[in-house]
Amino acid sequence: QVQLVESGGGLVQAGGSLRLSCAASGSSYRATAMGWHRQAPGKRRESVASFTSRGTINYADSVKGRFTISRDDAENTVYLQLNSLIPEDTAVYYCYFDIRDRYYWGQGTQVTVSS
């Protein structure tokens, strides 16, 4: 059974940084895509950053130049470096892995940015 475990969220002041991690286990198949979504209170879940199945990297316009997605395939882990954080980045961040056309999600990690 595939499990994704997230870590790295927390409370940070505006301008600060955090690094989120998401480790996958339980599958002998490699993910074809992976990435991060977030959901702020009262708002729809939105894509933040992703590695696509075509091998490209996508970022939401609101985080370009501030967030960086990376991966360690040997460790089945995807990371999200969050820099220059602003209060509008406050949300629960969810990672996902697309394994054999099925999406698996992490439990979510809270990121709170104070002004």
Descriptive notes:
The protein is mainly beta and 115 residues long. The chain has no helices and eleven strands. Strands 2, 4, 5, 6, 9, 10 and 11 form a seven-stranded mixed β-sheet that branches. Strands 1-3-8-7 form a four-stranded antiparallel β-sheet, with no helix packed on it. A hairpin with a 2-residue loop joins strand 9 and strand 10.
List keywords for this structure.
115 residues; mainly beta; 7-stranded mixed sheet; 4-stranded antiparallel sheet; 11 strands; 0% helix; globular
Concise overview:
This protein has strands at 3-7, 10-13, 18-25, 33-39, 46-51, 57-59, 67-72, 77-82, 91-99, 102-105, 109-114.
- Total helices: the number is 0
User: How much β-strand is present in the residues?
Assistant: over 45%
Count all strands and give the number. 11
What are the low-pLDDT stretches, counting only 5+ consecutive residues below 50?
none
Helix proportion: under 10%
Biggest β-sheet: count, sense, barrel? 7 strands, mixed
Structural category is: mainly beta
Report the end-to-end length measured between terminal Cα atoms.
Answer: 40 Å
Mean pLDDT: 96
The dominant shape is: globular
Q: Tell me the Rg in angstroms.
A: 14 Å
Q: Topology as H/E string?
A: EEEEEEEEEEE
Sequence-ordered SSE layout with sheet pairings:
Layout: E1 3-7, E2 10-13, E3 18-25, E4 33-39, E5 46-51, E6 57-59, E7 67-72, E8 77-82, E9 91-99, E10 102-105, E11 109-114
Parallel strand pairs: 2-11
Antiparallel strand pairs: 1-3, 3-8, 4-5, 4-9, 5-6, 7-8, 9-10, 9-11
